[in-house]
User: Which sequence fits this backbone?
């Protein structure tokens, strides 16, 4: 059972004055060739609270880190800003660095002057340097208000779940079982094996696919640490790293797992034949079936869509009595510590390309059909025949990149098609030396070990390659032969090749249901639907949701060697957690100030509970109890924080005060010329980073404030930005299906849409406020949005913007009055406005007394003691009880 | 269309479903010229793939025949409908041969039905009359053998030839049951049922009135479907037991029998022995409920396990 403990490594500098160190990195020439670090350093020294500022060639290097650590000791620094690269890259590095030197790791802020400045403004060096200074100012402003936070330590259930029993999932399961970790392997079809089981031979070694995979499948079936849940699907996942609660639905097989011996007598008597998915519909299976001879488990399944309930099978099964028509779907509940997603890929239906006539011309096939047609275990027992008349074709054309690398369908390269096309050509050439085989290609991509040699062998074997994407295939209705029309790029000539059969290397696409599964797991899918890795280079197997890992083609098309390697890799990543016993999780959760929550005064507000995508709020409207957030359930999106009309909720490390301080820092100078963007740290943040990595240039008058989720962006922030004179404001999150917090960005969108209308009424030109979705791979889109917004500012002109802002200011000020109710914000604004700190309203006084930098601890659960009746009414009382210790003093 | 997906082609004359794999080709053909929209197909189909298309009656005449339509996504090519269709409008094909999969695997019986001709007993003067009299035009004269032959595949067993030949033809009908016409309940001037009746059991008599010659009736029930006075039904669940499991299946029961001018009841069907749940279920839906169950010949039913099973379900229903 989950239990959260506070780890006591907080340090006691909180009440001291600000002592900030700023470190500017050259990143070799990556930053220094555009931004002038020394200027940034000199500027940083002028910022309030900064006691030291330095530069270094590589801050992340050992000497760079040592420099910081030494200064912390020598100058008694209590906060550190590193101006370098992306948070995704090095925030963990520097947090660890200052923690080693005795500071709380959260007393740190990263200023991204590389992806967000030097890499995107290389032609505007002065402007890039100016921007870098303001980014540093913003980081200093935020770090001035950060508070020490302690990681939550949670226990870990030493049990893994793997979703998808292809070769990637199988490899992961076997590795975990070797470590004696109990592993549940959930597979949606009746057997494990995945796509590899469908293949005939495998490139580049040409060994028989099922012959090498079947022994592994059998090992999985026998291993006492692996629990197979076939014909099952994951329906619900809640919880967090080390403590997931999973609901798996076992679909009824109508055949008892314990009693069926796999003898197959039932299959013989079953009268109903339907197309076998495993054979790509080329051959039939019965209503009672195993998909293939090597199935694991070797247990029959009745397809109720086909069954007519004749009970012939029951008769055939006889005294084994394995058939059980009374079976019903069953929900299996599991406590799981780590999850591996290995759901693989599906093949795309090329019917959409009408010119190729798939689905209309019988002899146009897909490459997976070709695999099954020449496989000895296939429907024709290895006799390679064409569908129209069952004859072995003498001529064959194979067409690559069907639906891949094609803007109309899928932009990406499906990775393994070049190799399997060559493989199938070679195999057919072995079987039928007289067969004339032509491959139409765009390029041939052979990046794997010995792959290029394999291609070379194919050419020697007499397989023809024509460079050019066919424009059309035409069938002769009499002979059912096909003429492939293409432009041969090498000769510039038109080719019209008549063949007896065509094979299409159709694109690989994410497996059916991948996006829905992503939602269940709160793991994002990229724009194509592939599961998104945490970092394309450094965390290729992690997902942004801690404790969930990726393996194989689920993340993008991969051949077998890569899928196996990833399976083992993901098992390694998962075992890191599973073998650790306990795990630390981020404390950037939200908490409710009970005094400010209207429910503590008898209110009936349910806004935060409705906003929370994770059901983390204990909401007891009308009881006089303030709402409360269960920290272990809170994922830290901050949506409730922005939604709360009472400003009663705060998110640690992303407090209103911290964010308002950043807004002020970034808009201190010439605000009318600036674009201020509030972006989520995941999709949009990574999209902005991607623009940097790709060196997509855009104007330098753009400034970013990172939050965890667009859902955190309060209307007040946008209004405050306009009150301060901003030229344009952007709120950007993930695409709806990608939101890392399920619904967070949707809440933001609703909220911002309303705000947009209000701003327009106040006279702010509509183009000046924009809500966008940018994915982690959409760097180009990010750059385009930045250019667009700049254009809006240019078109209107500074004078007009100033005038609009001037006109709107009184109303904005009025509406922003409530923002000041947050003591910390009020305190900050008083400082900014040089308003007297004397005569502070009591709340602000309280904030001040507490010391803005005072350490925050989890509030005890005063509101809902376990014995209280309220607990019974509370939907998550169970979770609350288990978290008793975490809430210190509660229950 | 992916390989193995069912393709439907529909013309005025027929509906064809094709399911082509490389090693198996299934085809079902519905001859819409024979189809009379009788409901037996929809009731038989275990996948509810067949829907009844109502006919159109104007001024007491049928201006558009009732018929059937097929959902290609539901049909699994079992062929049960082809066995039961009273007008032989449905044909099941496997790899180019006429074949009914459920029969091949003994999951469905063959109906006991026949039309035999004894030339020796025949008054050959009546030859042309008998040929012309056949409502389905399936009798022809075989010049070589000098005898009358019947296209058994398309004969609907109406017994018109039996009467016309004074018994030289002997017909065994599969269905037993009753048909009753209550003229007084008819809509004034309506003869729509005579327009659909495939056997001329319902016909316009010499006096110009609608009449019923029940001997010819094959109990298809098409007349009830076109009759402007519609049967109202309620559904109820029939519970029955098979292979140790208790099932329920929705069944329809007529609630306004007393108002209906034409009522067909099917009691029993003759068939080869079979042990099959699919058959039991088809039977339960096809045989008319109360009358059918009461009238079923218990002794014979006891000898035949399948009917016994049907009775088990029925007895449950009768008790309620
Ligand atoms: C025509 C063709 C030929 C190929 N030839 C070769 C070759 O010669 N050599 C080579 O190296 N590679 C080849 N490949 C690539 C190879 O198929 C893949 O590398 C490999 O199958 C990837 O394995 P995987 O486990 O990641 O995914 P998959 O094999 O796709 O397995 C995924 C599994 O997850 C299951 N699943 C999906 N969704 C869910 C869910 N929601 N819940 C539970 N289970 C789920 C699926 O049913 C499946 O069993 C070929 C591919 C094609 C299309
Ligand atoms: S009951 Fe269903 S699975 Fe069993 S033999 Fe009959 S049709 Fe096949
Ligand atoms: S939204 Fe705010 S005021 Fe409303 S219940 Fe939640 S914390 Fe209380
Ligand atoms: S063949 Fe079987 S499934 Fe298809 S329509 Fe006829 S009864 Fe229904």
Assistant:
């Amino acid at each position: 059972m989950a239990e959260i403990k506070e780890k006591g490594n907080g340090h006691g500098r909180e009440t001291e004055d600000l002592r900030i160190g700023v470190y500017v990195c050259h990143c070799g020439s990556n930053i220094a060739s555009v931004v002038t670090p020394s200027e940034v350093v000199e500027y940083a020294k002028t910022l309030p609270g900064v006691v030291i500022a330095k530069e270094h060639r590589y801050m992340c290097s050992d000497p760079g880190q040592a420099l910081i650590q030494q200064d912390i000791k020598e100058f008694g620094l209590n906060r550190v800003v590193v101006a370098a690269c992306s948070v995704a890259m090095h925030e963990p590095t520097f947090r660890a660095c200052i923690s080693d030197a005795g500071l709380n790791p959260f007393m740190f802020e990263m200023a991204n002057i590389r992806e967000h400045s030097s890499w995107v403004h290389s032609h505007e060096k002065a402007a890039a340097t100016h921007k870098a200074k303001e980014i540093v100012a913003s980081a200093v402003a935020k770090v001035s208000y950060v508070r020490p936070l302690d990681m939550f330590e949670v226990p870990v259930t030493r049990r893994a779940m793997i979703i998808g029993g292809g070769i990637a999932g199988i490899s992961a399961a076997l590795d975990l079982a070797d470590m004696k970790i109990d592993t549940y392997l959930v597979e949606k079809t009746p057997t494990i094996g995945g796509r590899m089981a469908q293949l005939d031979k495998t490139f580049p070694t040409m060994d028989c696919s099922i012959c090498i995979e079947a022994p592994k499948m059998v090992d999985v079936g026998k291993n006492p640490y692996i629990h197979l849940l076939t014909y099952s699907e994951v329906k619900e996942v809640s919880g967090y790293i080390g403590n997931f609660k999973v609901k798996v639905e076992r679909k009824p097989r109508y055949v008892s797992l314990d009693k069926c011996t796999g003898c197959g007598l039932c299959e013989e008597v079953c009268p109903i034949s339907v197309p076998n998915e495993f054979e790509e519909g080329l051959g039939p299976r019965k209503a009672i079936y195993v998909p293939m001879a090597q199935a694991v488990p070797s247990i029959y399944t009745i397809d109720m869509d086909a069954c007519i309930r004749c009970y012939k099978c029951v008769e055939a099964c006889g005294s084994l009595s394995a058939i059980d028509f009374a079976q019903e779907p069953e929900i299996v509940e599991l406590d799981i510590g780590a999850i591996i997603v290995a759901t693989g890929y599906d093949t795309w239906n090329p019917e959409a390309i009408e010119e190729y006539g798939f689905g209309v011309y019988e002899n146009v096939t897909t490459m997976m059909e070709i695999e099954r047609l020449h496989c000895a275990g296939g429907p024709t027992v290895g006799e390679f025949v064409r569908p129209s008349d069952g004859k072995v074709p003498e001529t064959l054309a194979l067409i690559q990149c069907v639906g891949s690398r094609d803007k109309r369908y899928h932009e990406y390269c499906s990775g393994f098609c070049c190799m399997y096309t060559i493989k199938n050509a070679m195999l057919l050439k072995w079987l039928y030396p007289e067969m004339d085989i032509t491959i139409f290609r765009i390029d041939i991509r052979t990046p794997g070990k010995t792959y290029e040699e394999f291609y070379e062998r194919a050419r020697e074997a007499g397989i023809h390659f024509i460079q050019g994407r066919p424009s059309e295939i035409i069938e002769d209705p009499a002979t059912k032969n096909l003429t492939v029309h293409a432009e041969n790029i090498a000769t510039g000539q038109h080719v019209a090749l008549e063949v007896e059969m065509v094979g299409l290397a159709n694109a690989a696409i994410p497996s059916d249901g991948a996006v829905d599964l992503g939602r269940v797991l709160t793991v994002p899918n990229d724009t194509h639907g592939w599961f998104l890795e945490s970092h394309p280079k450094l965390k290729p197997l992690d997902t942004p949701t801690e404790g969930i890992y990726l393996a194989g083609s689920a993340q993008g098309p991969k051949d077998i060697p890569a899928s196996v390697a990833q399976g083992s890799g993901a098992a390694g990543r998962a075992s890191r957690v599973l073998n650790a016993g306990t795990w630390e999780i981020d404390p950037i959760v939200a908490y409710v100030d009970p005094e400010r929550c209207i429910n503590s005064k008898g209110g009936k507000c349910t806004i935060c509970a409705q906003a929370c995508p994770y059901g983390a709020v204990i909401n007891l409207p009308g009881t006089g109890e303030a709402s409360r957030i269960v920290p272990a359930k809170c994922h830290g999106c901050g949506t409730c924080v922005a939604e709360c009309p009472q400003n009663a909720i705060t998110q640690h490390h992303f407090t209103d005060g911290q964010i308002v301080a950043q807004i002020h820092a970034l808009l201190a100078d010439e605000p009318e010329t600036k674009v201020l963007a509030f972006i989520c740290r995941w999709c949009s943040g990574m999209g902005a980073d991607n623009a940097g990595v790709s060196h997509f240039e855009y104007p330098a008058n753009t400034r970013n404030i990172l939050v965890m989720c667009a859902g955190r962006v309060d209307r007040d922030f946008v209004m405050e930005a306009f009150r301060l004179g901003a030229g344009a404001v952007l709120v950007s999150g993930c695409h709806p299906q990608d939101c890392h917090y399920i619904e967070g960005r949707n809440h933001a969108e609703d909220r911002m849409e309303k705000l947009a209308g209000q701003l327009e009424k106040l006279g702010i030109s509509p183009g000046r406020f924009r809500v966008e979705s940018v994915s982690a791979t959409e760097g180009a889109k990010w750059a385009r949005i930045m250019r667009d917004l700049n254009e809006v500012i240019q078109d209107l002109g500074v004078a007009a913007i100033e005038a609009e802002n001037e006109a709107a200011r009184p109303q904005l000020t009025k509406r922003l009055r409530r923002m000041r109710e947050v003591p910390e914000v009020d305190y900050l604004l008083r400082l900014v406005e040089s308003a007297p700190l004397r005569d502070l309203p009591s709340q602000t006084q309280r904030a001040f007394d507490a010391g803005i930098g005072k350490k925050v601890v989890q509030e005890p659960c005063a509101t809902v003691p376990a014995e209280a009746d309220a607990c019974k009414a509370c939907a998550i009382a169970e979770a609350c009880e288990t978290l008793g210790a975490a809430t210190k003093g509660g229950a | 269309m992916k390989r193995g997906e069912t393709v439907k082609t529909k013309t005025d004359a027929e509906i064809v479903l094709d399911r082509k794999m490389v090693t198996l080709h299934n085809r079902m053909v519905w001859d819409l010229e024979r189809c009379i929209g009788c409901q037996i197909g929809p009731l038989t189909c275990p996948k509810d793939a067949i829907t009844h298309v109502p006919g159109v009656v104007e001024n007491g005449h049928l201006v558009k025949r009732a018929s059937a339509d097929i959902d290609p996504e539901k049909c699994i090519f079992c062929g049960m409908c082809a066995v039961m269709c009273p007008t032989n409008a449905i044909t099941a094909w496997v790899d180019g041969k006429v074949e009914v999969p459920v029969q091949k695997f003994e999951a469905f019986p063959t109906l006991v039905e026949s039309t035999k001709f004894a030339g020796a007993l025949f008054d050959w003067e009546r030859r042309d009359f008998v040929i012309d009299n056949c409502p389905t035009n399936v009798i022809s004269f075989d010049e070589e053998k000098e005898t009358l032959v019947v296209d058994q595949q398309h004969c609907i067993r109406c017994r018109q030839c039996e009467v016309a030949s004074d018994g030289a033809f002997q017909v065994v009908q599969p269905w037993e049951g009753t048909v009753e016409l209550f003229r007084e309940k008819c809509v004034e001037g309506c003869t729509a049922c005579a327009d659909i009746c495939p056997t001329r059991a319902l016909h316009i008599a010499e006096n110009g009135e609608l009449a019923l010659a029940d001997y010819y009736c094959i109990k298809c029930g098409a007349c009830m479907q076109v009759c402007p006075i519609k049967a109202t039904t309620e559904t109820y669940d029939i519970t029955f037991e098979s292979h140790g499991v208790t099932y329920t299946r929705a069944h329809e029961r007529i609630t306004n029998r007393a108002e209906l001018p034409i009522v067909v009841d099917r009691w029993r069907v003759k068939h080869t022995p079979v042990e099959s749940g699919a058959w039991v279920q088809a039977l339960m839906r096809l045989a008319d409920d109360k009358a059918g169950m009461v009238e079923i010949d218990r002794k014979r039913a006891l000898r035949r396990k399948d009917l016994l099973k049907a009775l088990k379900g029925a007895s449950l229903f009768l008790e309620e």
Remarks:
- Chain A is about 30% helix and 20% strand.
